[in-house]
Amino acid sequence: MSLLPTTSIAAIAGYAGQTVTLSGWIYNKTEKGKLIFLMLRDGSATIQCVVFKKNVAEDVFARAQQLTQESACRITGVVRADERSASGYELDVQGVEIVSLTHDYPISPKEHGVEFLMEHRHLWVRSAKQHALLRIRAEVIAAAQEWLNAQGFIRYDSPILTATAAEGTTNLFGTDYFDLGRAYLAQTGQLYVESGMMSFGKVYCFGPTFRAEKSKTRRHLTEFWMIEPEVAFADHDDNMALQEQFVSAIVQRVLERRGEDLRTLERDTAPLERVLAPFPRISYDEAVELVNARHGEVEGCTAMEWGEDFGAPHETLIAQQFDRPVFVERYPSAIKAFYMEPDPGRPEVALCADLLASEGYGEIIGGSQRIHDPVLLEARIREYGLNVDDYQWYLDLRRYGTVPHSGFGMGIERAVAWISGTRHIRETIPFPRQLYRIYP
RNA sequence: UCCCCGAUAGCUCAAUGGUAGAGCAUCUGACUGUUAAUCAGAGGGUUCGUGGUUCGAAUCCACGUCGGGGAGCCA
Predict the structure, then answer these.
(1) Is the CB of A135 under 7 A from strand B?
(2) Cα angle: A115, vertex A41, A421; to 5 degrees
(3) Which nucleotides of chain B have an atom under 7 angstroms from any protein CB?
(4) Which of A23, A163, A183, A202 is 20 to 30 A from A325, comparing alpha carbons?
């Protein structure tokens, strides 16, 4: 005999008038003398179960009284439409089976502080808002992969343990690797995914990436998930066109399928409904001018000189000028990675773009056309102070059948934070890894 | 690494240098429509740690620990 639940609360409308058995956890209980309200959660949704003393056997009522918050149980009853219920349905209880009783569940329905909740993250994920948010994360991931698959992309995973720093820019987590010395946790899969691009034409990798930066802001994690598509015979403009289609498709699918979760999170969906290609594009040069003309509009936003990178307040100011995500393109090569193709008309800038989400959520995508000329690429590797020997395999990709190609990386947690309207990125992943937190 | 802020009951927070408080949670009782139920009662404290100032420190000072927000860096 299977223990699996036969009826899910999400599908309860189809059982009106019928007797069903629901399996789940008590998320709240209200006792009113001879009447008990049990709020039952089964992972799919919640429903209020009503126990009237005179309608049930004495032992059933006694067991209902015993139930506490987060006790596991099976409840049998008749599904009844009721206007007083938020979901439109209630369960008139006939039977209660206790699976396990919980005592002293730490998270009450009242308010809690961040530290307490993060310390109990393994339990916090049961709470309504966290539940809705992690569902949206799952939808974003599914939408991203399925959209790429439908466009003919092949998933091509990159290694997490690598011998050298891919981009040579950020700090990496290191570990001992047998007799071969140090190994590092990947900060990007991009270089590897370029090899797949030469094999399959259109590929993407998807997995965790690691940055040992001592970043301590609501936009940073030391471990985060990134999806990185790479396309052969695609230039900078093709790349931006792909990105805007990709992001629009993800946002529209979340609106379509996770509307209830967005309501739980009280997310204003009007800005999301506007997220449709094409997205506006401004050049780095224009963005610098804009910052210098209007930096007073955002707190902490200062004037800047050409050649400097944008800080978080600058990104907020730039994004504020548009009603949907905006591409900032053609940054100075000096502040970008070594592999970015120079603009043929202006070699001091790169054929790259960052996509800034609206509403102050900042950069969610960074992408570029990659250098395909082996001589230029090798020169850049040297200019950036990297060891050419470490990059021989990467240079091989240009020695054998090189073509112009482009790609980008989207940070899943930042995208989820933006789409769900969540202020802090730490809630968009089940177990966030941060500078001062690795438990639980 | 730098700047700012915080730590008091299980949780969220009060307390002018002068007896340690409330709401919620827990326990007891009442209640047939609650949605963070309500009402009555009870229990619950190494005020983060160490040192200092003071007749007297939760409160002021120093150092430390842990955490939060931001900067830089980035997705």
Answers:
(1) no
(2) 50
(3) 1-3, 10-13, 23-27, 30-37, 66-75
(4) A202
- Whether the predicted model's global pTM rises above the 0.90 cut: yes
Cβ A312 to strand B below 7 Å: yes
Own/partner pairs, A305-313, CB within 8 angstroms, 24+ separation: A306/A332, A307/A332, A307/A334, A307/A335, A308/A335, A309/A335, A312/A217, A312/A219, A312/A362
ipTM: 0.88
Distance CA A391, CA A385 (A): 12
Encode pLDDT of A13-52 as tens digits: 999 999 999 999 999 999 888 999 999 999 999 999 999 9
Measured CA to CA, the distance from residue A301 to residue A101 in angstroms comes to 54
What dihedral do alpha carbons A127, A128, A129, A132 form, nearest 10°? Answer: 120
- Predicted confidence band at A301 (pLDDT cuts at 50, 70, 90)? confident
Q: How far is the CA of A68 from the C1' of B21 (A)?
A: 29
- One-letter amino acid of A425: I
**pLDDT above 90 for A281:** yes
Closest C1' nucleotide to A408's CA = B75
